[in-house]
Write a structure and sequence with these properties.
alpha/beta; 32% helix; Rossmann fold; seven-stranded mixed beta sheet; 2 domains; Ubiquitin-like (UB roll); elongated; 8 helices
Length: 270
């Protein structure tokens, strides 16, 4: 029977999963994580021709081939091949941007461009993907460290810089999709207008309205115009008594990450 074990073709006599992956050290498999066709299992399932098996020793980082095989099996090969070559920029690495970046890294988007000029502060920790050990670090550096723990094979470029009308087009020239994740309305408008005017063909996924703790069901995604999508409730800015809370911010970030995925796969709203 032909199987694929950790990305390598193998012609084996076995017909059951744990006969194929039994650990020679202890004769069992308690020290291993076993993934069959993208899904972890502890059952000794029957095998079929061309099944894909990934075996990872517990507590160890899988190699690049093993991780890619896992993602390919979970996403289906056609989906993974599209996103692994994609280049996505995240402009602003706060509550929106840090969560978007982590979602895209977990999906296996191959190239992430992280842009922010700020440092991690205590006030960030209620909704952003940073930890106490990151306090005082540039957000670009801290988030790059986080992504390396999640998927060390994502190619991460960082720019610790403030985007302006003068530099945005050149800094973003290699990116396919740009996530606008700023706090300031003026910065949001600047980025959207600059990219649409000076970067033909690039898609912007922007956000507006995710403050407070109102219903998450009011957050939505809509196509504003060609190459521009907007996520949020479009009504609820941050203000005294209605701050930015993790749940709604993360819901909006999830909308943005999902729209990026749809753009990369050609699933565009008309």
């Amino acid at each position: 029977m032909k199987l694929w074990i950790n990305g390598k073709e193998a012609d084996v006599p076995w017909r059951n999963l744990y006969d194929a992956v039994r650990s020679p050290q202890d004769g069992g498999y308690t020290d291993q994580v076993v993934i069959l066709n993208g899904y972890q299992t502890r059952e000794n399932l029957p095998l079929s021709e061309n099944d894909e098996i990934i075996v990872i020793r517990k507590g160890e980082m899988p190699g690049k081939d093993e991780l890619e095989q896992m993602l390919r099996a979970r996403h289906t090969p056609g989906v993974y091949e599209k996103i692994r070559h994609a280049r996505v920029a995240i402009a602003g690495l706060g509550g929106l941007g840090s969560n978007i970046a982590v979602s895209l890294a977990r999906m296996g988007v191959g190239h992430l461009h992280l842009i922010d000029f700020d440092e991690v502060e205590p006030s960030n920790l209620n909704r952003q993907q940073y930890r106490l050990c990151h306090l005082g670090l540039p957000k670009t550096e801290a988030l790059q460290k986080e992504i390396a723990e999640i998927n060390p094979f994502v190619c991460v470029r960082t720019d610790c810089v403030r985007l302006t009308e003068e530099n945005a087009a050149s800094i973003l020239q290699d990116d396919m999709v740009i996530c606008e994740a700023f706090d300031c309305p003026e910065a949001k408008a600047m980025l959207v207008n600059t990219v649409l005017a000076e970067c033909p063909g690039k898609v912007v996924v922007a956000a507006s309205g995710m403050a407070g703790y109102g219903s998450g069901n009011t957050i939505h995604t809509r196509k504003v115009m060609k190459n521009l999508y907007l996520c949020g409730d479009e009504e609820t800015p941050a203000q005294p008594g209605r701050g930015l809370m993790a749940p709604r911010v993360m819901i909006c970030a999830g909308h943005q990450a999902n729209m990026v995925l749809r753009v990369l796969l050609g699933e565009l709203d008309e």
